[in-house]
Amino acid sequence: MGGGRQAAGLTGVRDGMRRLAPGVNAGMPDRMPALFLSHGAPPLVDDPTWVAQLKQWARDLPRPRAILMISAHWESAPLTIGSTTTGTPLTYDFGGFAPKYYQVEYRSPGAPELGQRVAALMPDNESVAYQPNRGLDHGAYVPLTVMYPDADIPVLQISMPTLDPQRLLHLGERLRPLRDEGVLIIGSGFTTHGLPFLRDPSPTAEAPGWSKEFDAWAHERFATGDVEGLIDFQATAPGMPYAHPTTEHFAPLFVALGASDDPEQVPTETVDGFWIGLAKRSIQLV
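Above: the chain's sequence. Below: its structure in token form.
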């Protein structure tokens, strides 16, 4: 991977190459997985099933030294590094919810060193931008308030510089060495996100056919390690375009796949089921 400076294709991603940061022993700290999780809207924290699933998931993980979030709710090119200060503010990027959702705080420690590492892993011919006042959006902080409620782990959010699956795979590949440094890489999106097509958006609503079909297809792709099929989801997945009328909520998956040792591995499917008819399927990759 040329120290994170050489462009690589999907073949390079599959090779599972990784590099330890200088001075980091392979056994210390724990090597972290890469995750793709379905984060939901702020009211998802009131769903006891999802909360229990995320809490158990966090308990089963090694404790991260830092967390790198890639959320569906921040698209910006070139790749942009958000706030690195302690007590990073939150971005309440939603509307029409009860006042309590706008009073949530998550004052995690700053992660300036992680910001420097991310920048160093990017290609020489690609610029990196900085937006130091950009707080964590709900795709980042909502799951963290459940998984790590003490807000005692440094968190950094970076933007998605593209929605192209291949390019996001390459981005994940460049970020992969961070896993050896104790960084938990989380792609936060939603397995289906056809909000405009939900007839009954109540939490226990029956999932529409397009959501069930896409979710079953995604499960099969994961179970067979079919990365090419996932990449081509817009053209081949059932339930499209209703499942993803825009694709930003599926895009973080490809960063997580690229950050894994082998995108064609069969991941651990940690969460399934539906909420307001949307598929919550989430995975863990090594």
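The chain has one domain: 2-192+248-273.
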